[in-house]
């Protein structure tokens, strides 16, 4: 068994066999997971009414005015909950105005003290 050709042939055979076993294992695992997804009840796939609204709004176009306005509200609420923003009593998000965003912006990293550029072409 010390022949180099025999060692090379055995190592190639073991590598090929291991690769085939790995491919079969991955295929069986993927087939098992696909079967689990198909057999779940609809309530497990859509746990809340809010998510059902989001799924329904995927197909709404801007020409469907009533449904589009409803979907805009659903999208805004989804965005607020995702970003963790609170809403006030009127239903608008707190701290979402452009003015508040500009006031809260950190100005400490902006360069200070630059002089104005002189005009090209001499004194004017």
TrEMBL record:
The keyword Transmembrane helix applies. It comes from Bradyrhizobium guangdongense. The keyword Amino-acid biosynthesis does not apply. Residues 84-96 have a biased composition (Polar residues). PROSITE patterns: PROKAR_LIPOPROTEIN. Keywords: Membrane, Plasmid, Transmembrane, Transmembrane helix. Residues 84-124 are annotated as: Disordered. The chain crosses the membrane at residues 12-30. This is Conjugal transfer protein TrbK.
């Amino acid at each position: 068994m010390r022949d180099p050709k025999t060692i090379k042939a055995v190592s190639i055979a073991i590598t090929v066999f291991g690769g085939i076993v790995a491919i079969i294992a991955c295929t069986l695992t993927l087939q098992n997971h696909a079967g689990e997804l198909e057999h779940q009840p609809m309530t497990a796939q859509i746990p809340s009414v809010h998510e059902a609204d989001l799924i329904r709004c995927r197909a709404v176009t801007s020409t469907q005015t009533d449904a589009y306005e409803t979907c805009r509200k659903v999208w805004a609420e989804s965005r607020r909950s995702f970003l963790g923003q609170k809403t006030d009593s009127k239903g608008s998000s707190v701290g979402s105005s452009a003015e508040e965003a500009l006031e809260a912006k950190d100005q400490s990293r902006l360069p200070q003290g630059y002089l104005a550029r002189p005009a090209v072409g001499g004194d004017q």
